[in-house]
Amino acid sequence: xxxxxGPSILEKTQLWINRSISLKLLVIxxxxxxxxxxQSMTLDLIDERQTRLQEAEEEISAKWSRSQTLxxxxxxxxxxxxxxxxxxxxxKTIRELNTAYFFPETLDILGDLDVQLLHxxxxxxxxxxxxxxxxAHFLPLKLEKLDLQSDQILWDQASLFIGLSDLRGIxxxxxxxxxxxxxxxxxxxxxxxxxxxxxxxxxxxxxxVDLRFSGKLKVKGSREFQVSPVGKTTQLELKGNWPxxxxxxxxxxxxxxxxxxxFTSQWKILHFNRPFGQEFRGKIPAVENSSFGLSxxxxxxxxxxxxxxxxxxxxxxxxxxxxxxxxxxxxxxxIHPLQYTLVGFSLVLYYTLLIALSEQLGFKLAxxxxxxxxxxxxxxxxxxLFDKLKTTALFSGILIVFYTFIFVIVRQQEYxxxxxxxxxxxxxxxxxxxxxxxxxYKN
Length: 443
Prior knowledge:
There is one protein chain. It is built from eight helices and 17 strands. It is an alpha+beta fold. The strands form two sheets. Strands 1, 2, 5, 8, 9, 11, 13, 16 and 17 form a nine-stranded mixed beta sheet that branches.
């Protein structure tokens, strides 16, 4: 009589490993954690490409002209004060020189920006050349507000200043007039005021300080153009051939009109809106902190959108693995952990493909092509796993829904949280409904 023995402990252990749902879920969770490593490398790659873009912007800006901030025009009038000082036990009377600054009563600026894209390798950088039409009105100087007398003023040494961030951006000789008389400007740099720009030497008459200034400037710049509200009433109108300006600074435009190829915007700033006055001794305050204007952002920052898309990578991986796992349960087709890993790597590689394509084609088309390629690859792989075309089509449809869902979230920034929360709730409810009759202890 032959002895019949049951399965060995090793065989039982192997059978448990093959059939244990709990162990399979732990393995899948471990694979997800492993995939976080290459996914973090994808985010590092985006940071590196953004850094290269910033380097390209900096290189072009350094050669073309940097961001421009216009401060002025304003008057600078030297004056002296009689002071007594003591030196070697003796008292002496000296004349101490200083400068008083006066801002205009009204300042009107009309700017027309011609924006173009310069290329550095695969990167595009927006730069502009602008025609500025300036008009300012200076009322008689209120010397009493600075405790000054007319006989203290050196009227023949007065100057009119126009501050500009980068003098390399001046394209042509400025056309400047004061009370209808043409003047020639000179460059200046003042350590006290930390300003640089244009200076017009004046020979003023103390009895005639009612000045009307007009000027035409042709300036070049990149990234941003801003104006400081030095007028007691400052009005700025900017227009240009750029579809997506980003309005920056302390004040937003009162009105704006954006089209697919241009913009027009108007500001009006009153002296009540500013944290400084009209007359100053020694140096002017940091008026650039109250500047306003716009920056030229590219219509679609592919890196920013790629970063937002990559942040949902873990969600895509988990939902895709969950779909595969449920199909494995229902179809009784065993999927090896290595096959889960290959699927996960294809989902991670998708983001590198998206970044590379978006640099060449733009984000929308890159997203479509990268998603189509990834879904197509996984559909063919799923066909080898499940054999049945119906199951493969179902898995492919689920992936299409996932990528469409992420695209909607990325494009709808204001409602991303709402749409994402509703989508995840629906995904959870669907999973609970599908798995409600599964006997987890039996499987």
